[in-house]
Amino acid sequence: xxxxxxxxxxxxxxxxxxxxxxxxxxxxxxxxxxxxxxxxxxxxxxxxxxxxxxxxxxxxxxxxxxxxxxxxxxxxxxxxxxxxxxxxxxxxxxxxxxxxxxxxxxxxxxxxxxxxxxxxxxxxxxxxxxxxxxxxxxxxxxxxxxxxxxxxxxxxxxxxxxxxxxxxxxxxxxxxxxxxxxxxxxxxxxxxxxxxxxxxxxx
Amino acid sequence: xxxxxxxxxxxxxxxxxxxxxxxxxxxxxxxxxxxxxxxxxxxxxxxxxxxxxxxxxxxxxxxxxxxxxxxxxxxxxxxxxxxxxxxxxxxxxxxxxxxxxxxxxxxxxxxxxxxxxxxxxxxxxxxxxxxxxxxxxxxxxxxxxxxxxxxxxxxxxxxxxxxxxxxxxxxxxxxxxxxxxxxxxxxxxxxxxxxxxxxxxxxxxxxxxxxxxxxxxxxxxxxxxxxxxxxxxxxxxxxxxxxxxxxxxxxxxxxx
Lengths: 203, 256
Prior knowledge:
With about 200 residues, chain A is α/β, with parallel strands linked by helices.
């Protein structure tokens, strides 16, 4: 197997150790950086994130990573957003006021209502024919969020049920967002990340 | 389907993992990293690390411990409690690798801090620790630093009811460390039925856990001391909990 190079975008938000460890475990190299020259050389980019939307977008803009990610997506570079990273891919968020996002997947981020948060292990169900996610349909992943993506169904690949169904995975081309934490989802997360990275990079 | 969680709890005092009995007696277990590594390997639904002496000594959160745990590359969600009093400390804990934080002393001293914390890291990342006991006057809230109790009333739960803190960790501190002794009246007497609860303290037996997890309000249960007496203790507990409310047990043999 060719060892791929995964670029974890370091914009000062979050801790990347679990992600790095998982990627190393599944056999790939990592570069954790905000340097676009290094990130351009990577086979795939990961956009993690924890906390609030606005400071995360500000951190990305301060490093000109918003423009960089837009360019990379136009060049069909695979980009995986995780948790807040998924939400950043959307057009905007209503968390703490209105804040524009990266605009890589049409839709907006709004607060969860009844329940007000989604915490714990939940199963995902595939809603579109997607060979990368099909094997994970019915598997449990760890969720921890209080805002959710709302957008056209065509970009929603998997859903989870928490009182009602909410998007668990969104996708437009080679840009994918996962609301759950695959790096904190043990076996199911590791398997999915391996399949996604290798599937997107060898496509 | 969203599952309830079985949480492995690691109590840390003076930098050592300890067994804690009734909030007063402590027996050393070793480096907390080893207990956390075991829980991660055993497929715990969540790991809760509680540094119980940080607030007493005014030390702030144990970021050094968190960074060591984070460097292990855990594949299990981690909640940390101990010494968190300010919003920037809450952010630092999350940036150091925890998914969620657990607050105790600050709920007594300066509960308004929870508003700032929720704004920065989200209410889903906040757990409020409530050591409780059933006394003659009713359900009482324990302050472990002054060793005093206060009758629990609705004003103490405003942060939870308003959605600034997502879950309440109710601890049967009297029975902590005692086998199969969790007092489920702490759940039935809890005044706000809409607040999700994590039960902890004296939970050791699968049947007892099953009864506690059957309460609709209980979203998780924590087990601490009783995971340290046998290998694969966590998986054995899960295997014996035949209810479908939990994620099925993962065995070492299943890990590639």
